[in-house]
Automatic annotation (TrEMBL):
Residues 15-276 form the Endonuclease/exonuclease/phosphatase domain. It is a multi-pass membrane protein. The keyword Membrane applies. The keyword Electron transport does not apply. GO terms for biological process: sphingolipid metabolic process. It comes from Centropus unirufus. This is sphingomyelin phosphodiesterase. Its EC number is 3.1.4.12. Pathway: Sphingolipid metabolism; Lipid metabolism; sphingolipid metabolism. GO terms for cellular component: membrane. It comes from the Eukaryota.
Length: 410
């Protein structure tokens, strides 16, 4: 290829807000999303929270003429909700499910059941007489349910670190890396700074030559009819948690020419696509005459501080997980002791040691079932928190080694 060969890549990213059977006006929103994608004909469309495979199939049938290539990523109990539609051939796919993803007993949140993941599609874009491999993975990290008491911060940091490592180790054969999704982190949060700095990603919003949309690029805004207004009271303008990130790997450069967000109701309807605003980026990709190195998003001295902060937060989560493991283990031991006492009482009755007194069979049986239930629950929690401790320990060790390597290079 010649050095002046270029490509303009238009990317659409949307968290579809729990498109499933009980979601508000689900079928209408699916139709509006499909109509918009057909009308604008983006090169890539990255969608999250499409939990219903039937909705994905409906979108695929509706978009087949303009998006001949698509893929749905399956994981967890109810599915990852991740899918991608592409005008370019998809050559290879991979799904990586994060090692930590919340707690199974937090049923009201449900993140654990969907198996939060990152999906990788290795595709190709024809331009200038050659083929440019690209990596457009849709992804979603664990939600933040409380800004003040964020019990899931250690899990989200583990996910951000694994996502950064995933990108570093899978992008070596690519020319351009694109990452789009709902990262559930504010731009200044340690997790997003860790992801950008360690993976060398650039933020399309901060790098865009032109921007059009919600103020400060917010993607969760109070005047959206589907948002929970009380959760955004501390943020009158809204928050930015949906991103399009990118970097060039080999002999290519990438610049964001334009970034847009939706700002209200979808064209042809009286409702938005989702409780999240869609993010749309136009990227200018150009091949240079010689190979270019990766462009880190954060300088090494700053990255040292970011990794240190992340390691500290993971350490806090590790200590909390150890306390929960101890509490569940103690509960299991107490339940086991209660069962042993009941067994001893039953054996004493059978041996005739208490023949002069009637044996309360109903109360004994109820207490035994209760003890067995507590034992099984406590044992399951102890096992889960043991695995959580190991995952947090592993990430803390990886962050320690990364920090040592950064400090040696300074």
């Amino acid at each position: 290829m010649e050095g002046d060969s270029t490509l303009q890549l238009r990317v659409f990213d949307l968290n579809c807000w729990a498109i499933r059977y009980l979601s508000k006006r689900r079928q209408e929103r699916v139709r509006l999303i499909g109509d918009s994608l057909r009308r604008h004909r983006f090169d890539l469309a990255l969608l999250q929270e499409v939990w219903s495979e039937q909705d994905y199939s409906d979108l695929k049938a509706r978009l087949e003429s303009c998006y001949p290539f698509s893929h749905y990523f399956r994981s967890g109990v109810i599915g990852s909700g991740l899918c991608v539609f592409s005008r370019f051939p998809i050559l290879d796919t991979l799904l990586y499910q994060y090692s930590l993803n919340g707690y199974p007993y937090m049923l009201q949140h449900g993140d654990w059941f969907c198996g939060k993941s990152v999906g990788l599609d290795r595709g190709s874009c024809w331009h200038g007489g050659g083929v440019t491999p690209t990596l457009p993975p849709p992804c979603q990290l664990h939600a933040e349910y409380s800004r003040e008491k964020d019990a899931y911060l250690p899990h989200r940091l583990v996910q951000a670190w694994e996502l950064a490592q995933f990108i570093r180790h899978t992008s070596k054969a690519a020319d351009v890396v694109l990452l789009g999704g709902d990262l559930n982190m504010h731009p200044e949060d340690v997790g997003i700074r860790l992801l950008r700095g360690w993976a060398g990603l650039q933020d399309a919003f901060t790098e865009a030559t032109r921007f059009e949309g919600c103020e400060d690029g917010c993607t969760l805004i109070p005047n959206n009819c589907f948002t929970v207004k009380s959760e955004l009271l501390p943020f009158p303008l809204g928050i930015r948690i949906d991103y399009i990130l990118y970097k060039a790997i080999s002999s290519f450069t990438v610049k964001c020419e334009e970034l847009k967000t939706t700002t209200g109701t979808a064209p042809g309807g009286d409702i938005p696509f989702s409780d999240h605003e869609a993010v749309m980026a136009t990227l200018h990709i150009q091949r240079q005459g010689q190979a270019a190195g990766a462009h880190p998003g954060t300088t090494e001295p700053t990255l040292v501080d970011v990794v240190t902060e992340a390691r500290t937060e993971v350490g806090v989560g590790l200590r909390a997980a150890r306390r929960q493991r101890y509490s569940s283990g103690r509960m299991a031991v107490l339940a086991l002791l209660l069962l042993l006492l009941q067994a001893a009482a039953a054996l004493g009755t059978l041996a005739g040691l208490a023949a002069e007194q009637p044996f309360p069979k109903l109360s004994f049986s109820l207490l035994a079932f209760l003890a067995i239930g507590v034992l099984l629950l406590a044992a399951g929690l102890h096992l889960f928190h043991t695995m959580e401790v190991k995952m947090l320990q592993g990430t803390e060790e990886q962050l320690r080694m990364a920090l040592r390597a950064l400090q040696e290079r300074l």
